[in-house]
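Posting this for the archive.
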Amino acid sequence: MSGNPETKQIFFDATVEEVAVSGIESVRTKKMAKRTGYAESLLYLYFKNKDDMLTQTYFEMDRRVAELCEAYFRDPANDGKTLDEVKWDLWRLVFRYLTGNPQVTLFFLRYRRSEYFTEAVKAQAQSETGTFEYLYRVMEERFGVPGSRYKNIYLNYIFEQTLYFAHMVTSEKIGATPEIEKVFFDSIGFTAVSIRKALSTGK
Protein backbone atom coordinates (compact mmCIF):
# COMPACT_ATOMS: atom_id res chain seq x y z
CA MET A 1 0.00 0.00 0.00
CA SER A 2 1.37 3.44 -0.96
CA GLY A 3 1.84 6.30 1.44
CA ASN A 4 4.45 8.04 3.55
CA PRO A 5 6.15 5.63 6.00
CA GLU A 6 6.66 8.47 8.48
CA THR A 7 2.93 9.22 8.48
CA LYS A 8 2.16 5.58 9.11
CA GLN A 9 4.54 5.64 12.09
CA ILE A 10 2.58 8.60 13.47
CA PHE A 11 -0.60 6.54 13.28
CA PHE A 12 1.15 3.63 15.00
CA ASP A 13 2.35 5.83 17.86
CA ALA A 14 -1.07 7.45 18.23
CA THR A 15 -2.71 4.02 18.44
CA VAL A 16 -0.27 2.91 21.14
CA GLU A 17 -0.94 6.08 23.12
CA GLU A 18 -4.72 5.74 22.83
CA VAL A 19 -4.72 2.11 23.95
CA ALA A 20 -2.36 2.84 26.83
CA VAL A 21 -4.27 5.89 28.06
CA SER A 22 -7.91 5.00 27.38
CA GLY A 23 -8.02 1.27 26.64
CA ILE A 24 -8.34 -0.71 23.45
CA GLU A 25 -12.13 -0.31 23.34
CA SER A 26 -11.73 3.45 22.86
CA VAL A 27 -9.86 3.14 19.55
CA ARG A 28 -11.80 4.53 16.58
CA THR A 29 -10.44 5.48 13.18
CA LYS A 30 -12.05 8.92 13.40
CA LYS A 31 -10.55 9.43 16.85
CA MET A 32 -7.09 8.37 15.66
CA ALA A 33 -7.31 10.75 12.73
CA LYS A 34 -8.23 13.60 15.06
CA ARG A 35 -5.43 12.67 17.48
CA THR A 36 -2.85 12.84 14.69
CA GLY A 37 -4.31 15.86 12.95
CA TYR A 38 -4.81 13.97 9.70
CA ALA A 39 -7.99 13.33 7.74
CA GLU A 40 -9.70 9.99 8.37
CA SER A 41 -9.52 9.31 4.64
CA LEU A 42 -5.71 9.38 4.89
CA LEU A 43 -5.78 6.76 7.64
CA TYR A 44 -7.58 4.41 5.25
CA LEU A 45 -4.66 4.71 2.88
CA TYR A 46 -2.65 2.69 5.42
CA PHE A 47 -5.24 0.54 7.20
CA LYS A 48 -8.34 -1.34 6.09
CA ASN A 49 -10.22 -0.65 9.31
CA LYS A 50 -9.78 -0.32 13.07
CA ASP A 51 -8.94 -4.01 13.51
CA ASP A 52 -6.24 -3.80 10.87
CA MET A 53 -4.80 -0.67 12.48
CA LEU A 54 -4.57 -2.36 15.87
CA THR A 55 -3.02 -5.52 14.43
CA GLN A 56 -0.49 -3.68 12.29
CA THR A 57 0.44 -1.59 15.32
CA TYR A 58 1.03 -4.76 17.32
CA PHE A 59 3.38 -6.13 14.67
CA GLU A 60 5.15 -2.79 14.40
CA MET A 61 5.82 -2.64 18.15
CA ASP A 62 7.06 -6.22 18.07
CA ARG A 63 9.31 -5.35 15.11
CA ARG A 64 10.87 -2.49 17.07
CA VAL A 65 11.75 -4.86 19.91
CA ALA A 66 13.14 -7.40 17.45
CA GLU A 67 15.35 -4.70 15.91
CA LEU A 68 16.99 -4.14 19.30
CA CYS A 69 17.83 -7.84 19.46
CA GLU A 70 19.13 -7.89 15.89
CA ALA A 71 21.41 -4.95 16.72
CA TYR A 72 22.72 -6.91 19.70
CA PHE A 73 23.78 -9.79 17.48
CA ARG A 74 25.42 -7.42 14.99
CA ASP A 75 27.62 -5.94 17.72
CA PRO A 76 31.07 -7.62 17.63
CA ALA A 77 31.36 -7.02 21.38
CA ASN A 78 28.80 -9.79 21.91
CA ASP A 79 30.64 -12.39 19.84
CA GLY A 80 31.92 -15.33 21.83
CA LYS A 81 29.48 -14.95 24.72
CA THR A 82 27.99 -18.07 26.24
CA LEU A 83 24.37 -19.06 25.78
CA ASP A 84 23.54 -18.09 29.37
CA GLU A 85 25.20 -14.69 28.92
CA VAL A 86 23.28 -14.04 25.69
CA LYS A 87 19.96 -15.06 27.25
CA TRP A 88 20.50 -12.67 30.16
CA ASP A 89 21.68 -9.80 27.94
CA LEU A 90 18.74 -10.13 25.57
CA TRP A 91 16.09 -10.51 28.21
CA ARG A 92 17.44 -7.47 30.04
CA LEU A 93 17.56 -5.53 26.77
CA VAL A 94 13.88 -6.27 26.07
CA PHE A 95 12.86 -5.69 29.69
CA ARG A 96 14.58 -2.31 29.86
CA TYR A 97 13.05 -1.26 26.56
CA LEU A 98 9.61 -2.10 27.95
CA THR A 99 10.18 -0.33 31.26
CA GLY A 100 11.52 2.66 29.33
CA ASN A 101 8.41 2.71 27.13
CA PRO A 102 5.48 2.12 29.48
CA GLN A 103 2.84 2.92 26.86
CA VAL A 104 4.26 0.22 24.58
CA THR A 105 4.15 -2.23 27.48
CA LEU A 106 0.51 -1.39 28.18
CA PHE A 107 -0.35 -1.65 24.51
CA PHE A 108 1.20 -5.12 24.32
CA LEU A 109 -0.64 -6.28 27.43
CA ARG A 110 -4.02 -4.92 26.40
CA TYR A 111 -3.82 -6.07 22.80
CA ARG A 112 -2.69 -9.57 23.71
CA ARG A 113 -5.60 -9.90 26.14
CA SER A 114 -8.20 -8.59 23.70
CA GLU A 115 -10.42 -10.17 21.08
CA TYR A 116 -8.14 -8.76 18.40
CA PHE A 117 -5.31 -11.12 19.36
CA THR A 118 -6.80 -13.96 17.34
CA GLU A 119 -5.34 -17.34 16.54
CA ALA A 120 -4.52 -16.04 13.07
CA VAL A 121 -2.56 -13.13 14.52
CA LYS A 122 -0.75 -15.46 16.93
CA ALA A 123 0.18 -17.79 14.09
CA GLN A 124 1.51 -14.92 12.02
CA ALA A 125 3.54 -13.58 14.93
CA GLN A 126 5.01 -16.98 15.68
CA SER A 127 5.92 -17.72 12.07
CA GLU A 128 7.09 -14.32 10.88
CA THR A 129 7.57 -11.41 13.21
CA GLY A 130 7.57 -12.49 16.84
CA THR A 131 10.53 -11.17 18.80
CA PHE A 132 10.92 -14.29 20.92
CA GLU A 133 10.38 -16.52 17.88
CA TYR A 134 13.24 -14.69 16.18
CA LEU A 135 15.44 -15.10 19.24
CA TYR A 136 14.69 -18.81 19.45
CA ARG A 137 15.72 -19.27 15.82
CA VAL A 138 19.01 -17.49 16.51
CA MET A 139 19.61 -19.70 19.56
CA GLU A 140 19.02 -22.77 17.41
CA GLU A 141 21.44 -21.56 14.76
CA ARG A 142 24.21 -20.21 16.99
CA PHE A 143 24.09 -22.47 19.99
CA GLY A 144 22.30 -25.59 18.80
CA VAL A 145 19.36 -25.10 21.17
CA PRO A 146 17.02 -27.99 20.32
CA GLY A 147 13.71 -27.22 18.64
CA SER A 148 10.43 -28.24 20.19
CA ARG A 149 6.86 -28.44 18.99
CA TYR A 150 5.89 -26.85 22.29
CA LYS A 151 8.20 -23.85 22.04
CA ASN A 152 5.38 -21.41 21.26
CA ILE A 153 3.78 -22.22 24.61
CA TYR A 154 6.77 -21.33 26.72
CA LEU A 155 7.87 -18.48 24.44
CA ASN A 156 4.43 -16.98 25.01
CA TYR A 157 4.85 -17.51 28.75
CA ILE A 158 8.22 -15.76 28.74
CA PHE A 159 6.87 -12.74 26.88
CA GLU A 160 3.72 -12.49 29.00
CA GLN A 161 5.70 -12.60 32.25
CA THR A 162 8.24 -10.11 30.95
CA LEU A 163 5.42 -7.74 30.08
CA TYR A 164 3.81 -8.28 33.47
CA PHE A 165 7.01 -7.55 35.40
CA ALA A 166 7.73 -4.50 33.20
CA HIS A 167 4.25 -3.17 33.93
CA MET A 168 4.77 -3.74 37.66
CA VAL A 169 7.85 -1.54 37.43
CA THR A 170 6.35 1.19 35.25
CA SER A 171 3.24 1.40 37.43
CA GLU A 172 5.58 1.79 40.43
CA LYS A 173 4.27 -1.28 42.20
CA ILE A 174 7.83 -2.47 42.54
CA GLY A 175 11.21 -0.81 42.17
CA ALA A 176 13.66 -1.65 39.40
CA THR A 177 17.20 -2.55 40.44
CA PRO A 178 19.75 -4.89 38.84
CA GLU A 179 19.06 -7.34 41.65
CA ILE A 180 15.30 -7.27 41.05
CA GLU A 181 15.86 -7.72 37.32
CA LYS A 182 17.90 -10.84 38.01
CA VAL A 183 15.17 -12.20 40.27
CA PHE A 184 12.61 -11.64 37.52
CA PHE A 185 14.83 -13.27 34.91
CA ASP A 186 15.62 -16.30 37.08
CA SER A 187 11.98 -16.85 38.06
CA ILE A 188 10.77 -16.64 34.45
CA GLY A 189 13.57 -18.89 33.25
CA PHE A 190 13.01 -21.52 35.93
CA THR A 191 9.28 -21.75 35.24
CA ALA A 192 9.78 -21.75 31.45
CA VAL A 193 12.21 -24.65 31.73
CA SER A 194 9.78 -26.51 33.99
CA ILE A 195 6.97 -25.96 31.46
CA ARG A 196 9.16 -27.21 28.66
CA LYS A 197 10.17 -30.35 30.55
CA ALA A 198 6.59 -31.11 31.58
CA LEU A 199 5.32 -30.74 28.02
CA SER A 200 8.16 -32.80 26.59
CA THR A 201 7.49 -35.67 28.96
CA GLY A 202 3.72 -35.42 28.65
CA LYS A 203 3.25 -34.77 32.36
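The chain has ten helices and no strands. The chain has one domain: 5-201.
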